[in-house]
Amino acid sequence: MNPDAISLLDAFNGKGANSPWVDEILKQHRNTPSLIVDLDHVRSKARSFVSSMPRIQPHYAMKANPHPEILKVLIEEGVRFEIASIAELDMLLALNVPAREIFYSNPIKPLQYIEYAAQKGVEWYVLDSIDELDKIVSVYPAAKLYLRVETQNLGADWPLTGKFGATLPEIHQIIEEAKKLNANLSGVTFHVGSQCRNLENWHIGVENAKIVFNMMTDIGFEPVLLDIGGGFPVQYTKPIPTIEDISESINSAIADLPESIQVIAEPGRFMVGDSSHMVSRVIGTATRHGTRWIYLDTGVFHGLMETVEGMRFELFTETGGAKIPCTVAGPSCDSMDVIMRDEMLPINLQEGDYVCFQNMGAYSTAYASDFNGFPKPEVIAFSR
Ligand SMILES: *Cc1c(COP(=O)(O)O)cnc(C)c1O
Q1: How many A from CA of 30 to the centre of ligand 1?
Q2: Fewer Cβ close by (within 10 Å): the C or N end of the chain?
């Protein structure tokens, strides 16, 4: 790979001078904002996931970051995929991913999308309501179906309960309706919430899934799939359980599942979150009601969407020195475009300075728009 890329990665990894990443960015005339992706790190995350949970086939949730270079590395590592839309499906088909290995895990799918996916050879479809069951079966009666059940999201920094997941009484009704329709109900899934820092959630999810398996078997179905979803965390500013801790809990919970049940997971954030750094520049500063405001060339609409729900990312500056609490905002004229408040930043931080958000590989550029005329970050993906 190109030597520039190596020195930039080394600079980020703290080898070299005082603020080496800034020197490298300058030397290489890199524009901001940009997302610098270390593909080797993505590869090592995929390997650590597989080695810590040997029974579990990962299906990457590509919404976290669908950059083609990332998808290619994951394909090389034997990772499969889950999708939410046919645009995502088309990206994978273009990379020669076999359709039968792709899981359609969005609980609400447009009718035409189901038709299209079925025609392309996608076999597995999730549902969490009778309405969606009827819809899928009406266009693709032989679809293999898995039921998304509600589960505890306590201790997840980005909870997902409330939008998706069937509750116990609904599960009963769905299973009965599936029986009536002679549908191919074959699996159970749950999602513990994104950036889940509570080990217990997976254990509870698996135990609940076993209850649903029993309900399914009682009525004559033969379950063959457990999909434990995503939620595996990466290190931001709060402590997280390691993948070893998490896998210990999951491996023990799935140990008594019969061999006939295939177990998969849908990690998104885990695979890419800590692979990337977002480089940005200060475009202006102001003091308002005594508070120091720092405006950057990237913001909520341009890659930092997750900060609106209070997620914090570590921010490095090229200058050091005494620090004061600052409000950090994006470039647009929308009042929602505030990235963080009370962030301790150097007093002398000024227009033109570089800043760098750490661990921004997931749900960053995937969310980004060019709202208000400001460009999305350029994605620069490297491997050695
Ligand atoms: C978003 C999503 C995931 C990935 O979640 P992470 O928290 O990024 O691991 C997995 N499965 C489904 C169905 C999702 O919607």
Answers
A1: 32
A2: C
